Amino acid sequence: MKMGILTLLLAIPGGSTLTLPPQAQDGPMGEFLKRTVQLNASQMAALEGGEVVTKQLPADEKADVAVFGAVRIAASPERYVERFRDIAAFRRSRTVAEVGKFGETPTIGDVQGLTLDDEDFVAAKKCRPGKCDIKLARSAIERMHADINWSASDARARAAAVLRQVMVDFVVTYRRGGAKELATYLDKEHPVDASKEFGVLLDSARYLIDYVPEFHRYISTYPSGKLEGVEDFFYWIKESGGPKPTVSVFHVSIWRDPRGPILISSKQIYASHFVRVGLDIVALVPSNPGAGDFYLLNLYRGRIDPPGGLIGSALIGKIRGSVENNLREELKSGKARTLAHP
Questions:
Q1: Nearest-angstrom CA–CA distance, 148 and 137
Q2: In this model, does residue 23 exceed pLDDT 50?
Q3: What digits encode the pLDDT tens for the residues 135-154?
Q4: Which of 48, 72, 249, 281 has its CA 20 to 30 A from that of 156?
Q5: pTM surpassing 0.90?
Q6: Which residues contact 331 (CB under 8 A, 6 or more apart)?
Q7: Distant-in-sequence, close-in-space partners of 29: CB < 8 Å, separation ≥ 6
Q8: Which of 267, 215, 273, 263 is nearest to 239 (CA)?
Q9: Quick check: 333 and 75 in contact, CB under 8 A?
Q10: pLDDT of residue 21
């Protein structure tokens, strides 16, 4: 690659000159950390010392969230990928109690461990097109009210069952038709076409378009595109690190670039709250040939529902802070999982 996969992430201009530790002084990663992320000297020292470093990055629009994180891990990138494949064990943390992987043929059994919180049960009961506290399409809203007798003793169990089936159907449809099959959400007054939102996110991913166009093309055109050596899987997760517990579904693609690092993309194709769509890109970059350790560089970009009103700015800040906190926890947990004995 001309300058390395992450040299121009987000293409943020300028940047102050830093005195970097020797390991990150030279090369494309050093340029990326100095000029794009603009980590300060203490953050660079923390990264070299094996600590997790995170930073919110400038966002183009009110609806955008951009967060960077990195950590140095004393293991091989291959070991990280091996542990990451067991996603249910890998993602569990103090903010993640429920997580599961979808099989090659997704079934209701894949999401049997997903529970419905009191708040979401009340939201499901009140949910109507244009006014719903859970992010759902019209078909899902109509199914809930057709299949559930809300005054019955088993209403909660039935609501959970319907939402689980909605998630299974969602993954099946996405695997068949890709991003163009993503839902149009009717939780707010104005519908949100998640397919178009993902188009905006992928079109702005200049770091992928410029330096690994074949990987960008693959994740943009899934499932019609082909890329030798890529590995895909899907999983769901319920996280409690934000303003309220949020259920998300991810499409993961793992690919070893013949010219450089191992790349992992995680497309957030569904979230029950706040996030319209999200894209998480991870690069596993060896520190030096044969050194036995690597840098995990992580960039998350998402499109959120921008809250309005007098407290809108404060709420956006809280959401962005939650995204950064979640990324920090993921990196800490990911490092611990990688270094743990089998």
A1: 17
A2: no
A3: 999 999 999 989 999 999 99
A4: 249
A5: no
A6: 52, 54, 69, 70, 71, 296, 298
A7: 4, 6, 285, 295, 297
A8: 273
A9: no
A10: 39
